[in-house]
């Protein structure tokens, strides 16, 4: 139990009455309670609502840890940046119907599907697509992609590559 509470940032609250926890802490406690049960499948609806980025990462890291131990974790979320970073599979739905089922890269690359669901891809993916960097989903992906482009680009003031073609 202590290890799971630590995963969600509630270490030291083992004896705290939930009434005395903040709303965000109670939400993390509910997720920890679900994980402690050791179910083969955990369905978590909007786990990061009301959490700051650091707490959101703790929750999603805890869910990833649960998944790494051979369990299925289904997350319902509208936070596409976190979905892009943590999900291995995305199911885009509208009015109870599956529109697309695939990896985050596959789903977020299908703009027409996203338009039907009123979901926008992560901002990093949108920026990278505008810059001609396909397959970028997260800020870390974007930084790596832009670093690769910049290391291949000639440095300012360097002579342009010589073109030996006959014009």
Topology readout:
Blueprint: H1 2-7, H2 23-36, E1 41-45, H3 53-68, E2 72-76, H4 80-86, E3 90-94, E4 97-102, H5 104-108, H6 111-117, H7 123-130, H8 139-152
Parallel strand pairs: 1-2
Antiparallel strand pairs: 3-4
Plain-language structure description:
This protein is an alpha+beta fold and 167 residues long. The protein has a domain at 1-77: 3-Layer(aba) Sandwich (Rossmann fold), CATH 3.40.50.300. Helices cover 46% and strands 13% of the residues. The protein has eight helices and four strands. The protein has helices spanning 2-7, 23-36, 53-68, 80-86, 104-108, 111-117, 123-130, 139-152; strands at residues 41-45, 72-76, 90-94, 97-102. Strands 1-2 form a two-stranded parallel sheet. Strands 3-4 form a two-stranded antiparallel sheet. It is globular and about 70 Å long.
What is the number of helical segments per DSSP (H or I, 4+ residues)?
A: 8
The CATH topology label of the domain at 1-77 is Rossmann fold
Poorly predicted runs are: none
Helix content: 40-55%
CATH class of the domain at 1-77: Alpha Beta
Describe the biggest sheet? 2 strands, parallel
Distance between the termini: 74 Å
CATH superfamily of the domain at 1-77: P-loop containing nucleotide triphosphate hydrolases
**Overall number of strands:** 4
Query: What does the overall shape look like?
Result: globular
Task: State mean pLDDT (0 to 100 scale).
Answer: 84
Class derived from helix and strand content? alpha+beta
């Amino acid at each position: 139990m202590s290890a799971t509470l630590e995963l969600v940032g509630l270490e030291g609250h083992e004896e705290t009455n939930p009434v005395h926890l903040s709303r965000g802490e109670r939400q993390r406690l509910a997720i920890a309670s679900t994980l402690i049960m050791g179910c083969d499948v955990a369905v978590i609806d909007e786990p990061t609502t009301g959490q700051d980025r650091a707490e959101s990462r703790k929750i999603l890291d805890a869910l990833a840890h649960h998944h790494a131990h051979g369990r299925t974790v289904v997350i319902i979320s509208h936070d596409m940046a976190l979905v892009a970073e943590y999900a291995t599979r995305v199911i885009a739905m509208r009015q109870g119907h599956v529109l697309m089922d695939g990896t985050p890269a596959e789903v977020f690359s299908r703009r027409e599907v996203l338009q039907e669901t009123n979901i926008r891809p992560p901002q990093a993916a949108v920026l990278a697509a505008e810059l001609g960097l396909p397959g970028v989903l997260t800020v870390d992906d974007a930084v790596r992609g832009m670093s690769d482009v910049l290391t291949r680009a000639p440095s300012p003031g360097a002579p342009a590559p010589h073109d030996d073609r006959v014009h």
